């Protein structure tokens, strides 16, 4: 039994090839994944991300609850609308999920978590919430559309009314605001400028059609994956999961160690790993010759072996890139087992493209 | 249902073969195969003058999704390869039976053609997939 988002009919109308994505029937592409990728890098594309889970947290303990729940510290959020990326950890320091938290007031926050992990996330959030005076409310009545690309903001502006335009004008990255009936956030998963727009299910098809008419091109999960990988953004379940420390997943920057007495779940485990430098690390791999690095392949580095967690052909760069979890002793080159042969690759920081340009 | 031209012969491994006369045959992959693979990003072709046996893997089609071996549908000598695919692998997606051809073989034994499927046989074989 697969679920469908409220935009399902719009995808079929646009010629989508639909696939089962963790129980959701979602568009993998609308003809060409690579053309959709380029549309986002060069112009504006949109993704249906309504399968993602929106959870509102309210109550007098909301701040204290989130300071317990996630590795980053919501006390950093002081301006209404500001967002924070972080992980929810288990006691062993593994990543239960990664998420974005929007701050409205110290008693009111919004979380956006992954769809594939929805059930276990809600179970975990509710279990932790039991010790706090908060209410946890899932918001399935909302759909979400990500509009991304160098022209995404300008093209979206053409479909907003004057008041909405005024509200979003000059928004800094990683903020979310209520603009009329839309919640508009300057977040995304592509390394481009743009919005993620939360809209009531009843208005989603209309919003999609308006964006389409404004020249925003539908893009599927295939392009979403190549775009996020070029941008060096993690995919839960591939680049990290409950057995992987955030320190081994390029998520150290999403952990707040100060104040020292904030006892978030998993802190003891990852503090020990940090002190002992005992985890692997996530690096980028670049293959400038023919072939495509694929997830699951073995990586041989100085001092040991690792694994490709995500690999793809990079349409922007014209060659293959990958994220790999490897021993910290890794040098500037590595070898990857590809189709039974060992191939030399460059080791770089785990980020390849930003705002349309190579940053290798 | 994807396009399966009736004048071609097919291998169950999704290659098509077109008779060009004089014992020469052009080989490509079917529209169904390119749909399964998705956007092509690299195509590795054999060298001209290579001798291949029927069923031998002699090329690789690498798409956004997977690397896939291409098998010689019949044995013989490679007499031409589609060098345009080097810069435009997407031609395999856009024109699988035309400009997206992969290589041309001079057959060593034309009776091997009898082992291939006709359009109807191929259509049935992909129905079973």
Automatic annotation (TrEMBL), chain A:
Reaction it catalyzes: N(6)-[(R)-S(8)-aminomethyldihydrolipoyl]-L-lysyl-[protein] + (6S)-5,6,7,8-tetrahydrofolate = N(6)-[(R)-dihydrolipoyl]-L-lysyl-[protein] + (6R)-5,10-methylene-5,6,7,8-tetrahydrofolate + NH4(+)
Q: What is its EC number?
A: 2.1.2.10
Keyword annotations for this protein, in alphabetical order, are: Aminotransferase, Methyltransferase, Transferase
Q: What sections of the protein cross the membrane?
A: none
Source species, domain of life: Bacteria
Q: Which GO terms describe its molecular function?
A: aminomethyltransferase activity; methyltransferase activity; transaminase activity
Q: What are its GO biological-process terms?
A: glycine decarboxylation via glycine cleavage system; methylation
- The residues covered by the Aminomethyltransferase C-terminal domain are 281-353
- Positions bound to substrate: 196
Q: Which residues form the GCVT N-terminal domain?
A: 7-258
What InterPro entries does this protein map onto? GcvT, GcvT/YgfZ/DmdA, GcvT/YgfZ_C, GcvT_bac, GcvT_C, GCVT_N, TrmE/GcvT-like
**What is the purpose of this protein?**
The glycine cleavage system catalyzes the degradation of glycine.
- Partners and quaternary state? The glycine cleavage system is composed of four proteins: P, T, L and H.
This chain's protein is named: Aminomethyltransferase
Name of encoding gene: gcvT
UniProtKB/TrEMBL annotation, chain B:
GO terms of biological process kind: glycine decarboxylation via glycine cleavage system; protein lipoylation
Task: Provide the family line.
Answer: Belongs to the GcvH family.
Entry GO CC: cytosol; glycine cleavage complex
Keyword presence, Transferase? no
Record keywords: Lipoyl
Q: Which PANTHER family match?
A: GLYCINE CLEAVAGE SYSTEM H PROTEIN, GLYCINE CLEAVAGE SYSTEM H PROTEIN-RELATED
Q: Which residues carry this modification: N6-lipoyllysine?
A: 65
InterPro entries cross-referenced by the UniProt entry: 2-oxoA_DH_lipoyl-BS (IPR003016), Biotin_lipoyl (IPR000089), GCV_H (IPR002930), GCV_H/Fam206 (IPR033753), GCV_H_sub (IPR017453), Single_hybrid_motif (IPR011053)
- What name appears for this protein in its UniProt entry? Glycine cleavage system H protein
Give the required cofactors: (R)-lipoate
- Briefly state the protein's biological role: The glycine cleavage system catalyzes the degradation of glycine. The H protein shuttles the methylamine group of glycine from the P protein to the T protein.
Mark the transmembrane ranges: none
Domain called Lipoyl-binding: residue spans: 24-106
């Amino acid at each position: 039994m697969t679920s469908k988002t409220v935009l399902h009919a719009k995808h079929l109308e646009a010629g989508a090839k639909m696939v089962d994505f963790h129980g959701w029937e979602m568009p993998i592409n609308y003809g060409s994944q690579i053309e959709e990728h380029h549309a986002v890098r060069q112009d504006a594309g949109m993704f249906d991300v309504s399968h993602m889970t929106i959870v509102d947290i309210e109550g007098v303990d909301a701040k204290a609850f989130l300071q317990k729940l996630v590795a980053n510290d919501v006390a950093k959020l002081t301006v209404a609308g500001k967002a924070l990326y972080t992980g929810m950890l288990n006691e062993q320091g593994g990543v239960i999920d990664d998420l974005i938290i929007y701050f409205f007031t110290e008693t009111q926050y919004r979380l956006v978590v992954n769809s594939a992990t929805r059930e276990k996330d809600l179970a975990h959030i509710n279990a932790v919430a039991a010790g706090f005076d908060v209410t946890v409310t899932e918001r399935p009545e909302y759909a979400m559309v990500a509009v991304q690309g160098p022209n995404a903001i300008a093209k979206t502006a053409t479909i907003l009314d004057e008041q909405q335009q005024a509200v979003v004008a000059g928004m800094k990255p990683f903020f979310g605001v209520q603009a009329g009936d839309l919640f508009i956030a300057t977040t995304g998963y592509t390394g481009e400028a743009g919005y993620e727009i939360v809209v009531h299910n009843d208005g989603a098809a209309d919003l999609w059609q308006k964006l389409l008419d404004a020249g925003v091109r539908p893009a599927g999960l295939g392009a979403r994956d190549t775009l996020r990988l070029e941008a060096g953004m993690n995919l839960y379940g591939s680049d990290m999961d409950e057995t992987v420390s955030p320190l081994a997943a390029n998520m150290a920057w999403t952990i707040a160690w100060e104040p020292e007495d904030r006892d978030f779940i998993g802190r003891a485990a990852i503090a020990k790993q940090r002190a002992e430098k005992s985890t692997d690390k996530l690096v980028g791999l670049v293959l400038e010759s023919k072939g495509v690095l694929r997830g699951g392949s073995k990586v041989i580095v100085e001092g040991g072996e690792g694994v490709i967690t995500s690999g793809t052909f990079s349409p922007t760069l014209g060659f293959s890139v990958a994220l790999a979890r490897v021993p910290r002793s890794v040098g500037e080159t590595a070898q990857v087992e590809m189709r039974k042969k060992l191939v030399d690759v460059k080791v770089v920081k785990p980020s390849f493209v930003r705002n349309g340009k190579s940053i290798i | 249902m994807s396009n399966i031209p009736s004048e071609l012969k097919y291998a169950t491994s999704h290659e098509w073969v077109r008779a060009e006369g004089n014992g020469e045959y052009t080989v490509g992959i079917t529209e169904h195969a390119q749909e399964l693979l998705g956007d092509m990003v690299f195509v590795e072709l054999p060298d001209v003058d290579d001798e291949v046996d029927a069923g031998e893997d002699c090329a690789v089609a690498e798409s956004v999704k997977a690397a896939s071996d291409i098998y010689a549908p019949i044995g013989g000598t490679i007499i031409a390869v589609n060098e345009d695919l080097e810069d435009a692998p997407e031609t395999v997606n856009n024109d699988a039976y035309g400009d997206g051809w992969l290589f041309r073989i001079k057959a060593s034994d034309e009776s091997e053609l009898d082992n291939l499927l006709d359009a109807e046989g191929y259509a049935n074989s992909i129905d079973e997939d």
